[in-house]
Amino acid sequence: MPLIRSVSKAARQLLLTPACGCEPLSRSVRNISALSRQVTSSDASFHSISFSETDHPKVLITGGLGQLGVGLATLLRKKFGNKNVILSDIRMPPSHVSRSGPFIYADILDYKNLREIVVNNRITWLVHYSALLSAVGEANVTLARDVNITGLHNILDICAQHGVRLFVPSTIGAFGPTSPRNPTPDLCIQRPRTIYGVSKVHAELMGEYYHHKYGLDFRCLRYPGIISADSQPGGGTTDYAVQIFHDAVKMGKFVCNLKADTRLPMMFIDDCLRATLEVLEAPAETLSMRTYNINAMSFTPEELVQEVQKQLPDLRVIYDVDPIRQAIADSWPMNFDDSNARKDWGWKHDYDLPELIQTMFSIISPDSRLTHAN
Ligand SMILES: NC(=O)c1ccc[n+]([C@@H]2O[C@H](COP(=O)([O-])OP(=O)(O)OC[C@H]3O[C@@H](n4cnc5c(N)ncnc54)[C@H](O)[C@@H]3O)[C@@H](O)[C@H]2O)c1
Ligand SMILES: C[C@@H](O)[C@H](N)C(=O)O
């Protein structure tokens, strides 16, 4: 069985080189042959991997041209070196992204191409950011199902077969109207009402199942709505909390598509990306779970407007509620309980609402423009 031999060799190397950050593969060596996707013996010799050449992980980020990927690549490249972090997406990278480090075309629905990229680049960590977000997903359920569920299956199989540590973000959207909403704990009823939420619960459960069954080193954080100054959100329900800063500065006017009293958990991007690196680096024995809530702040549009108006008192706000986004927001947590993340691997946010406002306005000046990754 050449596949078993090559995986056993990789497992031995992993055990000898813990600095690569990968968990022992003993369980996956026992179980990997049970993986549903058939791997031929010629594939198996192609898979032969060694992590002993480097102390740094070799990272692939899928869906890397969205709101979060470029920022994460910048953070990881500072720590692990430019050539060790590859951004990928199906869109054309803007020139500043191409110049900043390796970029590769990768469609997560193309299993063979994805596997080739992982193998040829000796990937040891994969951050799976490709997804259709909540509002865009409701507008195109079939595509959301393909990208968020079929795409995830490709990622899971490839990572399990090649001993790759896998990070998949989940979301406040993985909860639904029957979940406790204030606060929402890690373990409770999850019955989301969006294809986005359904696909994220599926990702959480499949990742945890592959961890237990095949030893996949799966790590998952449920992000709140993420607020960034220099990258554009990709079509979610929490997008208003980014847009308000730009519209306030450029136009002095903001049209809010959620009701004034809609409370949602939110986080500044720097906290989100640091949490991602921290959980990826956390020793496996500190992780009592594989899927954690992380939290920072929680506010309503009205509260955010009040804070923004302290900086720009002339800002005018109109509420023009989008019923689809409002129904989604009304089914999501108002506050997140992230006590397990704080206890297990020391999670601590840096940005509350005042620091967020100060930082956003220090980046977005009247002369600034949103950086469009597309
Ligand atoms: N931004 C947030 O507020 C937030 C909150 C919670 C969770 N998340 C999760 O974090 C991840 C990244 O979020 P984001 O805001 O950067 O998303 P985004 O929508 O901005 O970017 C997603 C990227 O996926 C890419 N993509 C789509 N189809 C693809 C395919 N077939 N193959 C490869 N790539 C494909 C898109 O081109 C896009 O660049 C997502 O999984 C999202 O669910 C984000
Ligand atoms: C919350 C998160 O998953 C995303 N920003 C959305 O609103 O869809």
Question: What would your notes on this structure say?
Answer:
The model is unreliable at 1-30, 38-53 and 368-374 (pLDDT under 50). It contains 15 helices and 13 strands. It has helices at residues 2-16, 26-31, 41-46, 69-80, 95-100, 111-120, 134-139, 141-161, 195-214, 240-251, 269-281, 301-311, 323-330, 339-345, 353-363; strands at 59-62, 85-89, 103-105, 125-128, 165-167, 170-171, 218-223, 225-227, 253-256, 264-268, 291-293, 297-299, 316-319. Helix 9 links the parallel strand 6 (170-171) and strand 7 (218-223). 44% of the residues lie in helices and 13% in strands. The protein is globular and about 55 Å long. Strands 1, 2, 3, 4, 5, 6, 7 and 11 form an eight-stranded parallel β-sheet that branches. The protein has a single domain (2-224, 268-297, 335-350), classed as Rossmann fold (3-Layer(aba) Sandwich), CATH 3.40.50.720. Helix 8 (141-161) runs parallel beside helix 9 (195-214), helix 10 packs parallel to helix 12 and helix 12 crosses helix 15 (353-363). With 374 residues, it is of the alpha/beta class. Bound molecules: nicotinamide-adenine-dinucleotide (NAD) and threonine. The site of threonine has 10 residues, from loops. Residues 62-63, 65-69, 89-91, 106-109, 129-131, 133, 147, 151, 169, 171, 223, 225-226, 233-234, 236, 238 line the site of nicotinamide-adenine-dinucleotide. GO terms for molecular function: L-threonine 3-dehydrogenase activity. This is L-threonine 3-dehydrogenase, mitochondrial. InterPro entries: Epimerase_deHydtase, NAD(P)-bd_dom_sf, NAD(P)_epim/dehydratase. Residues 59-294 form the NAD-dependent epimerase/dehydratase domain. Belongs to the NAD(P)-dependent epimerase/dehydratase family.
